[in-house]
Amino acid sequence: PHCQGKVKEKTQPMKPKFDILITPPNRLVYMINHEPPLLNLGKVEWLIIDEADKLFEAGVSGFREQLATIYKACSGSHIRRGMFSATLGEDVQSWCRLN
Questions:
Q1: In the structure, what pLDDT confidence band is assigned to residue 13 with cuts at 50, 70 and 90?
Q2: Count of CB atoms within 10 A of residue 7's CB?
């Protein structure tokens, strides 16, 4: 399924199973927070975050808050999380341990 279209026009929850979903965090958060949620991440097995060093570039808020929302939505008992970055500072490592 293709989710690249105008998400704001979507009014019904998505039912297909995704093997891979690539989307910016803000679009994913929008789909999670919509009433009713447009996407259920409860059965996600892998959550991969690229450019993890970008978590702290915008200061305290922004991408980290979006990522926390996404982490909470990925509520499956077998979730594995991976983060990739050329550099990974102590602040990012501390945040990862907390979340």
A1: low
A2: 16
This prediction's pTM? 0.68
CB-count exposure of residue 90 (10 Å: 0-12, 13-18, 19+):
exposed
Bond before 36 cis per omega within 30 degrees? yes
DSSP secondary structure, the chain, as one string = ----S-GGG--S---SPPS-----HHHHHHHHHSSS-S---TT--EEEES-GGGGGTT-SSTHHHHHHHHHHH---TT-EEEE--S---HHHHHHHHH-
Asked whether 28 and 59 are in contact (CB, 8 A), the reply is no
